[in-house]
Specification:
The structure is a single chain. By secondary structure, the protein is an alpha/beta fold. The protein folds into 2 domains: 6-126 and 299-325, Rossmann fold, CATH 3.40.50.720; 130-294 and 329-360, Dihydrodipicolinate Reductase, domain 2. It is built from 11 helices and 14 strands. Strand 1, helix 1 and strand 2 (30-36) form a beta-alpha-beta unit.
Amino acid sequence: MSQRPLGFGIWGTGMIAEFHAKALAEITGVKLVAAYNRSLSKGREFAMKHGIAFAETPEQLLANPNVDIVCLCTPSGDHLAPALACAQAGKHVVVEKPLEVTLSRCDALTAACAQAGVTVAGILPRRFGAGAVALKAAIETSRFGQLTMAGALIPWWRTQAYYDSAAWRGTFSLDGGGALMNQGIHTIDLLLWFLGPPKRVSATAGLVAHGGIEVEDIATGWIEFANGCRATIAGSTACWSATGFPAEIRIHGTSGSAVLRDDKLTAFEFEKPLPSDAPQVATATEGGGAGANDPKAIGHAWHRANLEEAIGAIRTGRQPAVNGAEGRKAVELILALYQSAQKGGAPVDLPLKQDPALSTLGTKHLS
């Protein structure tokens, strides 16, 4: 592909589309040129705000010769059909988290893009924070020794009004799940990125503080990884805070320990310390967690880094760091946790053999 500015289109102009637009505006060599939303009034408003063309139909968006890549910012369970249309039109695809809400849909999306010869890149932006990158490097250079224990905590808050704001929110068909699939997926993805493939999980989940939704607002469980490390996990949207508590990951091994709060390393200790370790450690902050109690209260810097890497991959013809296979991993783990919760906490082995039938759960506790 030539080095002319790459043209971006955005399909779906809800809240998350704003983060894509802001990030793209700061990346050299690209240009946001068009947007589509099935709500014509909302789509026109977004296009006018950003000074771009508004496509009244998906076909019009995909027929635009200046659109090379499409960011899919539709609801989670509505990624497959737009991705198939993009692939058929020869457009590369950037897909917001989660890649899709079932494994079969994830696989169909990835296969269609591969068959069409277009790139699919996922948005899992917490992988690109400086703290996460430093922690990943320490793991890869074996500074923790044998990884033994880990934990992920996402004690977040969402109001009832948040779930009532759109008909698709809190449904398994379009939201894919609740505190784990929607809010916790970023932290869960980091846990997988750090620790590798999971072997077995157990979980309980329930709906304790919200009404009128199918999905969980609290879930806890444990994960056994193939490398022998054990991890606990707890995620919720029923933990009120005035400022929001950061998502946290703890990693422990036989020669090191670390704590990552959002993207701040508040502990980074090793049996054999290096001079470079101390500058990595940031001062802990109790509040201000990214998206902890307000989904709009996040910056777009991580999105920018995620998009920059994907753009570099498209330009050079390589696979992006967060490709379809990488985006699928967190979805599979979360579905395994849901499946265990459906079975009253019974252990579930990975890889999963099939998608659990989550649409039958209604508003009852998952276990």
